[in-house]
Each structure stands twice: as C-alpha cells, then as structure tokens.
C-alpha cells in the first residue's frame, strides 16, 4: 500500500504529472508500455470511441488527443488480468463480500457467464443458452411485467440501447431506471419545457467563438480533461473563463498540455479561469439571480444591455422574471450564495461585457434539491442577452458517461414521450406500454417493497452508485433474480438476488465479429455528434458476447413467437439495427451512410436554430424563489446548537464513478487514501479538533434511520465554512433515498446535511450521540 500523505499540489493540471500517471496506470494493468499503441486509437476515425467521458472530439478524425483519464479508462478495459471461473472457485460470495470495491474490479476482465449456486455460496460457469433460458423463465413467470426492472449505465451503444428498449417494451414495461437519473436528469427536466430540447445547444465550434465561458459545478481537469484543451485555447485568445465552485479545483486554475512540447520542456502552463467565484454549496441559484438582477439594473441605468429583439420575438415570461428579480434582496442573495453583492455584480459585468457566452455545468448543479430551478436560472441568464441559438453562445450541460446522451435518444427513458411509443407501434406493429416506468430511486423502493422482483442491468454498478447503500443492498437481495451484463466484477454482483447471473460482455475497445463480419457501434457525445466506434483489440475471452447480441438472444429466448422482430438476424450485421433506428427516429435519416463519414454527423437540435419545440412555441424565462427549504436549511434550523455541515460528494482523480483506479487525488493533494473529508480550517478549530483527526459522518434526516459513514480523516482545505467534501461512493450510505431533486428525482448527492462526530475505534462511544428522533421529515 502506498504511503498516505496530504501534500498541496503546486503544479498545473496535465503536464508531466499526467504522463507519469499514465505510465503507472498501464503498469498497474500489466499492459506493456510497448504494446500501449492500441490506446492511441481512441477517438480515431477507424478506432473506438473513448469509454471515458462524453466530451466531444475535435473532428474525431485527426490527431489523437492525449487524455490522462481517457487512457486510464481504456487501460482498465484492456487490462491483461482475468477474473475467470478459477477465481470464483477460490472464494465464496461471502468471502468476496469482504473484499474492497477496488479489489473486486482489480481481478480483471470476466471471461465466462456465471450463475449463483446457493448451496456452495459460489458463482459457477453456465452456458449462455442456459443463462438466457433462466432469465426468460423468470420474466415469463411474472404476473405483471412491471415487476421487472431494466437498468442501463451510459456506456451502452446506440445499437444495444435501441434493441434493449424495444425488447423491454415488447415484454411490457417502461421500467428503465438509468444512470442519467442520478446525473443530468435535471438538465433535461429543466431545459425541455424551457427551450424544447433536453440537451445542450453548443458545438466545439462555439467554444472557438465564445467571449466568455461560465463553468458551474464541474471539475473538468479530472472528469473531462479534453475540455481543458478548449478552455486553454479560449483563454489564449482572450475569452473570459469564469468558474463557480466551492472548492478551488486545480484543473480550473492552470493547465499544461502534455502535447505542447514547449510547455512540457519549460514546465510552463496556461491559466484556465480568469475569475473564480468560491460560492457556498448549493448557492448557485442565488448567485445566478444576483447576476440577473445586476443585468436588469444595468439595463435600467444605461440601456442596451438586454437583447430586446430576442426577448420579444422568441420568449415568454420575461416580465414575471424581471418583477421577481427587482423584488429580490441583495442581503438574502449574499447570505444564500456565499458571495458578496460586489462579486455577483462583477460576475454579471463579465457576462454583460461578452458578446457571446456559453454556460457549462456538471454534477455540482444537478445533484441538489433545487437543481431544475438552478438550471432554468442559468438558461434564463443566457437568454437575457440572446445567448442561445447563435454562434459562440448557449447552454452546455456536460454529460458524464460516453453514451449516456445517446441512450436517452434511443428511448432508454422511464417516461417515454407518446410520440416515441407511437412510432414503435407503427414500425413494429405492437402496442407498447403507456404507463410511465420507475426511475432509479423508485426502482429501489419497488424492490424494497417486494414489487420489483427481477433486476436486470445493462452495465454499471447499481449497488455502489445509488443512494442509501444499505437500503439498496436490501432491495437487490429481495429480488428473485438479479442479472448483470458487465465487463468486470463489482459490488452489484456480490449483493445479489435469490438467483443471480453475471453475463460478461465485450468492451468497446474490442473487436466485435458477428455473422456479417466485424461490427462497429455508434455513440452520441455531449454535443449531439453521432459517430461510429470500432474495437481493435482481441476480446478478453472467447466466451464474451457483445451487448447487442446479449440483448437479442435474451429477447428471442423471452418473447419467442410473441415477437415479430427478427432479433438474431438484426445482430448479424449492426447496419440492420441502424436501419430500424432510422425508421423510428427521423433525425437518423440515412443513418448508415452518414455515420460512415469520418467524424459522423450532428443530430438536429431545434433550440440551436431558435426553433422552440415547447408548448407555447417560444422559449421561456423562469422565476424561481431562492431555496430556503433544503434539507440543510431544515437541519440547521432544528439543530441550532450543533454544527450542521452540508456535505458534497465528488470524484477523485483516480476513479471512474464506482471504479477506483488508485488511491490518489493528485490535484487535491491526497495520496494513498480515500477516506478523507475536506473541511475549512476554521471549522476544524471550532469543533475543537485538529487537521488529521478521524471522524464519523452522520446524516441529519428524520425518518428514524441512522445513516453513518465511519472513519474519515479531516483535511484542512480551501472550502467555505459549513461545507464539506468527500468522495463517492464511500459516502453513498449517507444519502437518504428520499433526498431527491424536485421534479427530476435525482439523488441530492451534492448537499447532504451531516454532523461530524469524533471517531472512536469500534464505534462503542457513539452511543447517545445519534441524531435525535424527533426531527421532522425534510
Ligand atoms: N476520470 C473520470 N471522468 C469522468 C467520471 C469519473 O468518475 N472519472 N465520471 C463521468 C460522469 S458519469 C460524470 S456525470 C461526469 C462528472 O463530472 P463533474 O460534473 O465534474 O462531477 P464531480 O466530480 O461530482 O464534480 C462536481 C464539481 O462540482 C463542485 N460542486 C459541488 N457542489 C457544488 C455546488 O453546490 N455548486 C457549484 N457551483 N459547484 C459544486 C465540486 O467541487 C466539483 O468540482 O464525469 C464523467 N467523467
Ligand atoms: N454520492 C454520489 N453518488 C453518485 C454520484 C455522485 O456524484 N455522488 N454520481 C452519479 C452519476 S453522475 C452516475 S452517472 C452514476 C454512475 O452509475 P453507474 O453507471 O451504474 O456506475 P459506473 O461506476 O459507471 O459502472 C461501472 C461498471 O460498469 C461496468 N462496465 C464498464 N464498461 C462496461 C461496458 O462496456 N459494458 C457493460 N455492460 N458494463 C461495463 C463495469 O463492470 C464497472 O464495474 O453514479 C451516480 N452516483
Ligand atoms: Mo454521470
């Protein structure tokens, strides 16, 4: 185990640290440096789409863009290690349960389908056909198809996702919880009624033209490293880059491009943010309202600030917003945002001074109770000066998983629009279920209640990624059958139903040969660009099936003569699947031809053309009150004598969601450990504790359930008082199932009211320090 240390990181993001870390990542996976050439095929015209993040590639056709975390993601899949039947013969599931998440994935790629054998408490090999027959038997025995739940993680290709939603709807349910429910759901929920599309409107070209780029609640240095390249270029040509974040994130401050020989040789770097507003956790809506208020006041004072023509021609609701802003008090905005009036005004002056503005946001915005309101506030701010649907301007929610946006486009959606269902009916001649299905949180509830009986996951790690960990585990364990289509062993396979299957699949980096020859799949990035991805590495095992093949064979086994879809014929050649996609989605017209062009094509985005697919035919301004009813507000009110903190949960530099690559978080100066909690130095002293002390974190909630995560080290950090930050997924036991974003249902993983308690080994001394039971439900 590497030495644990905390050491302030002085270098820029990227640079030599990144190259070094890449070398270590390859060595860790037993990949010889010499053979690492495959990695260079990520995002090449004839290579695979990087399974890292959803940030688009500069034309997906020319140079390899170096990305440290992209290489780590590819290396994790291309690992030389194998978790085959001999591993499972060695351990009972109870023994595997005692291993860390890191250890589980570190065993390497799964090689064969495995079935749980209860008498021995072990997983044993099973033939593919037997596995499909087992699932089919369970599904067909359910009296109501809504008792089955079909989860999706955002790596599934368009082809796999399309077949999956078709199969599940023919089976009879819309129960499609997905990772998006925990991620950018509020972005869609906010923007769809507002501008008629649930996606961002900008392209990389707009990043070349923007005069100002506002970044809310996002850590691109770690999570979207290739975005730093765009920000760096923008900065060099004089654009303003304005960050809003409670933490000082290194990747938002300085960046050295590992492909810039001069910077690397001279240890130079480029500043990223020109302005950094360190607001309070959850303070974005008041901060944005302060900015809008200043814009309005400047219009009143000197005119020419608002885009009157845009507002008149394209929007509704401006007068109501203006009235709301005029009535807003600066004192309240300051108190709730953690920024001063002067700071909000200066941020707004940058906004006013720029002709074209892009606003980006990530999980720091979406994982809050008032996420939808905040997003509508950000888009309203943009619209005040017509910053949408023209060059260099627009909203840019930056998606996470590499095809999470495409999966939703393909119909992985628990609330399918009627138009989609009508198309499916017309094209495939069946009546799809009309009732909305369950989202992620609702799925957990239904399994807990015994209504959800079969849980099937196309990728992901449901047991670790979701809130209220132990409740989720109970939920999964109550199922009659749990099935995971997966590349590596993870917690979700260990916390299983009465019967359980692990179905190993090809990864995106691997060659996928079907009857019709080698196949490519398609994905859609965060800017609606659709392109092809072709694997180039030999499969990790000869027994692996592709995701489309798994779905097709399962559909054929389950639906039999009930389905008129030629499942097995479709997967012989994925171009046939794309022909079906085109029939259902007119925007994919000529799909096979257009996706064969290097770089692919962009899906139509009506809002980017100033065509508003909303009920009123216009874009709308939305006025939202400054939130004062969040769980943190309620908890502080109730616990006047205690120090109630608001905890945000975030990613370290060495992880991909629940996959932990290593124990370092270089840019935040954390090495060899993950159980740390970042806290303001003054708060440490106010608690009578010291930097480096061990604490337990306990949620303040009021359903009588105790939620605690134990043994975290206090790390003094540049973070506002009253706020804490710690890593996910270790902190997921702290997120109550009932803590969700209004109207979007997203777990509020960025704002959990908590208390810090001194950690006592064994926890015995904690008796009596639990949250009083009389607290009300927030
Ligand atoms: N290497 C790597 N890449 C990834 C991932 C990964 O785990 N590893 N995950 C992928 C996925 S699925 C996603 S969704 C994205 C996630 O990418 P991000 O959206 O960057 O997600 P987080 O790491 O959760 O970081 C959120 C940022 O929001 C800040 N923040 C927290 N609360 C607030 C707040 O109230 N207001 C503001 N303004 N800021 C706040 C945090 O300090 C942090 O900087 O990345 C994708 N890419
Ligand atoms: N507290 C807290 N919780 C959060 C978040 C947070 O910020 N804080 N973030 C949320 C967000 S934004 C997201 S997106 C979710 C992520 O939730 P998920 O998408 O469910 O989780 P991942 O960790 O990305 O899934 C990793 C697993 O995917 C499998 N896998 C990898 N590649 C493939 C593939 O090609 N095919 C298949 N079939 N399987 C594959 C591997 O087995 C790996 O173990 O977590 C959410 N949970
Ligand atoms: Mo995500």
Automatic annotation (TrEMBL):
GO BP, sorted A to Z: cellular respiration
Iron-sulfur recorded as keyword: yes
GO MF terms, alphabetically ordered: 4 iron, 4 sulfur cluster binding; formate dehydrogenase (NAD+) activity; molybdenum ion binding; molybdopterin cofactor binding
Cofactor: Mo-bis(molybdopterin guanine dinucleotide); [4Fe-4S] cluster
Pfam families tied to this protein: Molybdopterin (PF00384), Molydop_binding (PF01568)
Every Molybdopterin dinucleotide-binding domain range: 645-752
Limits of the Molybdopterin oxidoreductase domain: 109-486
Keywords of the record: 4Fe-4S, Iron, Iron-sulfur, Metal-binding, Molybdenum, Oxidoreductase
Cellular component terms per the entry's GO annotation: membrane; oxidoreductase complex
SUPFAM superfamilies in UniProt: ADC-like, Formate dehydrogenase/DMSO reductase, domains 1-3
InterPro entries per the UniProt record, alphabetical: Asp_de-COase-like_dom_sf (IPR009010), MopB_CT_YdeP (IPR037951), MoPterin_dinucl-bd_dom (IPR006657), Mopterin_OxRdtase (IPR006656), Mopterin_OxRdtse_a_bac (IPR010046), Prok_molybdopt-oxidoreductase (IPR050123), YdeP_MopB (IPR041953)
Matching PANTHER family: PROTEIN YDEP, RESPIRATORY NITRATE REDUCTASE
Family under the similarity heading: Belongs to the prokaryotic molybdopterin-containing oxidoreductase family.
NCBIfam families per UniProt: Fdhalpha-like
Record-given protein name: Molybdopterin-dependent oxidoreductase alpha subunit
